[in-house]
Amino acid sequence: MRARRPAGRPLGGPHARDAAPHLAFYSVAAVDQLLPDTLAARRFTTLLLALFGAAAPALAGLGIYGVIAVATAQRTREIGLRLAMGAEPRNVVWMVVPGAVGLAGAGVAIGLLASLLFLQALTSLLFDVVPFDVPTLAAVSLLLLAVAAAAAWSPARRASRVDPLVALRTE
């Protein structure tokens, strides 16, 4: 003859009440109900990191744009003289943009060297992530160089449209 199961208990293996009958259970829920609450903090942290990661190239672009705009404005007289001597506007653009990309390339190289130097410290901070991932580092480096080129393009185009007579009279 089979033993009757107590009312309200599902069929199956051992139950928490059997293991610890003296404990009170207050919040009992299925794993499917508890999982979203458990992962909420990690999702929020991941979202913040993603937003900061997306903001970094934008801030880098703004900084590069500002530096190149000021440097190009300081060279207005030189650019006007070049245009007066017969330089084409595209030559002025290609005089400014490679300089900015070169400076950004030097910054990328310094950043890559710094990441190599701090590789051991980065390894202790990362979980289940390769600290020196060559494809990722190459993609980020190319992204920063593209941001530098795009940020330098506007001041270079503006400089190439300067009227040579106005530029020569400015100082």
Shape: elongated
Please report the distance between the alpha carbons of the first and last residues: 109 Å
- SSE order in H/E notation? HHHHHHH
Biggest beta-sheet profile: none
Total strands:
0
- Helix-strand makeup class: mainly alpha
Count of DSSP-assigned helices: 7
Radius of gyration, Cα only, in angstroms? 31 Å
Mean pLDDT: 81
Low-confidence stretches: none
- Could you tell me the strand content as a percent range? under 5%
Helix proportion range: over 70%
What is the strand and helix layout of this fold?
Layout lengths: L15 H4 L11 H44 L1 H9 L4 H29 L1 H7 L8 H27 L3 H6 L2
Helix pairs in contact: 2-6, 4-6
Sum up the structure in keywords:
171 residues; mainly alpha
Give a written overview of the molecule.
This protein has a domain at 57-169. The chain contains seven helices and no strands. By secondary structure, the chain is mainly α. It is elongated.
